[in-house]
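1st attempt posting a full record on here, be nice pls
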Amino acid sequence: MRTSFAVAIGLVSLLGSVLFACAKGSSYTGSGGNGGEGGEENGPGPGPSSNNSSSASGMGGAGGMGSVSSSGSGGSGAGSSSSSSASGSGGGGACNETPCKLVSPQCGCAAGEMCQIDGTGERACVPAGNVPIGGLCDIDNDCAPGGICLATTPTISTCGEFCSTDAQCTAPGGLCAVKLNDGSGGQVAGVTLCSENCNATTNVGCAAGTGCTFGREAAGQMRLFTTCREAGSGTQNSACTDDTDCAATYGCFNTGSANECLKYCNVNAASCPAGASCTPITIGADAVEVIIGNVTYGACL
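the predicted structure (as C-alpha cells):
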C-alpha cells in the first residue's frame, strides 16, 4: 500500500509595496510515510506576498499574511521513472544506526536492498531502486538508496534525499531541514530530507510541471531555502488564488485589488515585462530580503 509524506513551504512578501497576500498551501507527498508538517513564520513585510505553502517540519513558511502553518495533506503522485544504476546498502554488517541507516552511504541492509521508511513510519530494508535524486518516481521503492519518492503534485513525484547535515544537500538552495510527520501530529524520529536546490527565475532544479519557490526555517538560524511546488498555467497578471495557479517562474501576489501571478526576477539582472519593475521580495516580519546564492529575488510589479 502506498502511503504519503508532505513538505511545507511558506509565504513571501515584496518590499516597498502596499500589497498583501492570502496564505493557501500546496503540498507534495511521498511514498512510504504519513504526511508532512510545517513550522510557522509570522506575517508579511510591507509588500505583496506570494501564496505558496507546501509542508515540512523544521522549516517554516516564509512570511505571509498573519502566520503560516502547514498541513500534512496531499495525494500520492505518479510519474515516469528515469533510471541510474545503484546498489543496496550492502553486507548487512555492523551499522551505527538501527536497524539501518537512511542517509547515503547506507548500511544495515543486505546487498541489493536499501534502507527506507515503511508505511508505519519505521525504517526497514527493502529492495533497492535506481532512480536518482530529483528523478521521476512512481512507487515506494523506485528511488536509489538514500532517496524517497515525494509527490510534488497529484501526478508528478520525484526522489527526495535523506540527509543529516547541510553539506549533503545541494547548495545554495538545498538545506537539511525537511521533517516528516507520523500522521498523528508528531514527527518521524531521525528522518530529515534536503529541500530542492532550484532557481525561481529559470526553474532550473525543478521537474517539468513544478515551479521553484522559497521558504525559511521556522527557528534557529532561520535560513532561506528553495523548493519545488505544483505549477499552474497563469502568467503575468493572471488571476490566482495561490502559487499553484501560476506557471513555473511566476508567483501569486496580492496587488491590492486582486491576486495576480507575477514573474520572478533577479533584482541585480532584472528582465521584466514592459511597464513592470523588479521589486525585491522579503520574508517574515523582519523583512529579510530573499537572497539565495548570488541571486537577489524579486517579482515584476
